[in-house]
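Bench notes, afternoon.
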Amino acid sequence: METMYNRAPRRRDSRGARSLFFFFIVGVVTAFCWYGYMRFIPNSEMVEPGYHFEYPVIIQGIETGQGALIENKEVKLPLSAVQQVLGEDKPIRYEPDSGSIILTTAGKLLHLKTDSLTATINQKPYQLTIAAETSNGTVYIPAEPLQELYGLHVEFVEKTGVVTLLSAGDAVQLAEAAPKKGAAIRNEPTIRAPYVEKVPQAATVRIWKEQDGWLLVQSSSGLTGFINKKDVKLTTIDQMSEPALEPAFIPWKVLGSKINMTWEAVYDRKIDTSKIGPMQGVNVVSPTWFALADDKGTIKGKADSAYVKWAHQQGMQIWALFSNDFEPDRTTKALATVETRFFMIQQLIAFAEVYDLQGINIDFENVHTSDKANFVQFVRELTPLLHEQGLVVSIDVTPKSNSEMWSLFLDRAALGRIADYLMVMAYDEHWASSPKSGSVASLPWTENSLVRIMKEDGVPPSKLILSMPLYTRIWTEKKGVDGKIAVSSKAAGMEQVKELISVKKLKPVLDKAAGQHYVEYKEGGAMNRIWIEDDVSMKARVALIRKYDLAGAATWQRSFQTASIWETIDKAIKTRP
């Protein structure tokens, strides 16, 4: 009995093992078949593309977050999509209060309004066939002027409703579908994904990117999706055409030399040019003639035809200065709207014509940081219109600092792309109310100011003019009753300091760290210190102009000079290392 009981379980174990083995084989075969099915058998289901808009906007094979509008088979594009494809170098300004849309290039300014077929280009009439509009909080712009100004390529396929945007100059790889079987465009990079379109054999598609052996493509119907890399053959590169080149504005330059400009500070009285001595090498003067008078953009002027005649007789160009009068709140309102900005521009053009000016120098200082973008927009609108009149546009910029009202409002990178020249006002390192005595513009500080703008803001040296002070400060340090040193200063021109040194029989010493001469003397129980502006300091700064091959030099301001300094600057500019 014991033997029989021992044998029975072994027969059952044998049958169980065979069953397990059978199911294992079936599982392996099933898994293999499933793997083969998933790996090699494509999904034959066709689905709709699944775009989010009736007229989806496609950029580089990807649907953007906005759809287009179609009117009379013409395309209106959402502003956000246009800005995405054009990039920051071609910004478009929209002002909702007036419905104004402003488009600018180096030589053109197009101003249109929502719900209006009338526009202007460089202040001349420009007729639209469809109007810009706003809908559900989105601004839509007609495609036609975008194509004309920026060379934007806009493709609309009526059958699918797809709108494709391509930038001028874009290079896109093309490919052909497999010659025998064509290719399927799928909504995901896998053969198990359903397809949105079958591309016939030898049909051309655009390739936008590669992903895990698949290509993101776009067919002639505008539909996008993924094609297996093995199902296409690369062909040619499709190069998007560029718009017709605008005649380049060439800012005035002195052949074989540098710009050598000086500012002429004009206060209550006109300048008596008979008292101005020879200024060897100076080829541009910038009289401070124009200033912002109110928040509506009205400009007050002090221009003088007699000064114009004198300057031209000396062979000098006139780049008249336009300031904001250092009035921040007035400036905010004047820059806020296209109407006030255009009003200022029109007045400057009129002044330039009446007084035969060759340029405008913009000197906006003490500006709210919140007006940074509006100031750039003003310069962006101003420049093509002034260029059309043959006028040079220069912008005064301070060295970079953390000062809210004097430095941070300046977008030097953007201004450097737009204007002809940036005048780097390399003063005041130590300002009138500085708590510490020091140079107005030491050599290392001056050089660092230039280098930061070139490196951090990408402004080319050919657009930079080093502006140098013809004045210094006489510093007075006096100990108070509390034992603390009180510091005060007063500005002094070169001739005044030269006379003071002579009268007091002082002996200047070279401050190597500052790159200029220095004197000190005691008077009335106080220590007086002067970092001197003279031939030494001017030569050292002009050497920076040669070192970095800057566009030239400027000086603030003429009446602070000594008669000999013009020859010193001129020779230093023309000297070759």
